[in-house]
Design brief:
alpha+beta; Glutaredoxin; 2 domains; four-stranded mixed β-sheet; 11 helices; 54% helix; binds glutathione
Length: 199
């Protein structure tokens, strides 16, 4: 059975919880107190971070690496495109989001950071750029829900919590976010601390 070491408010752990519930297989989630990090976390992940996935002798970290493994191990429903070209494009998009958006998470979470304003503004701008794309389709890669939607959803859930206010022109993004939030697996994957992040 897979065991996921997960932070109760961690957006990266949230991604992996979301995929585990989408797949509907047997797994265990172990909450990790990041303010009092158990020693075994650094033994499993040299960077000392969650999420971490364990399956027998396999130890994985990095949310996107974990999620691709789960997707390949339990291919139904498949979340990465099956065509190699589309899959490579999806990986590039995941990489772009890490570089341009998720690299700002620490600054968004630390309201006292001198980079907090700049982080909120750059995340807002990047999401606004996605708005015309999502206005034309149901999900980020078209009509089917995919790993790209999984990767973005924890950030979209936290927009109010982080104080990122999108302009009216970004309405399609908010509509799209509601579509993702309405998936049963999304709700099941939320921790009690995440449920209260959004009214
Ligand atoms: N790139 C990593 C980021 C993971 C990450 O930043 N985790 C944070 C919690 S949200 C963490 O474990 N922080 C504890 C620490 O760095 O000591 C991923 O995608 O999994």
């Amino acid at each position: 059975m897979m065991i996921l070491f997960s932070g109760t408010t961690c957006p990266f752990s949230h991604r992996c919880r979301f995929v585990l519930y989408e797949k509907g297989m047997d797994f265990e989630i172990r909450d990790v107190d990041l303010f009092n990090k158990p020693e075994n976390i650094s033994l499993m992940n040299p960077y000392g971070q969650v999420p971490i996935l364990i399956e027998r002798e396999l130890v994985l970290y990095e949310s996107n690496v974990i999620n691709e493994y789960i997707d390949e191990r339990f291919p139904h429903p498949q979340l990465m495109p099956s065509d190699p070209v589309q899959r490579a494009r999806a990986r590039l998009l995941l990489f772009n989001f890490e570089r341009e958006v998720f690299s700002q998470i620490d600054n968004l979470e630390n309201k006292d950071s001198e980079n907090n304003d700049q982080a909120r503004s750059s995340v807002k701008d990047r999401l606004c750029q996605l708005s015309p794309i999502i206005a034309k389709s149901k999900f980020m890669l078209g009509e089917d829900f995919s790993m790209i939607d999984v990767a973005l959803a924890p950030l979209l859930w936290r927009l109010d919590f982080y104080g990122v206010i999108l302009p009216k022109a970004a309405a399609p993004i908010l509509k799209y976010a509601e579509r993702v939030f309405s998936r049963p697996a999304f709700f099941e994957a939320l921790t009690p601390s995440e449920k209260v992040m959004r009214k």
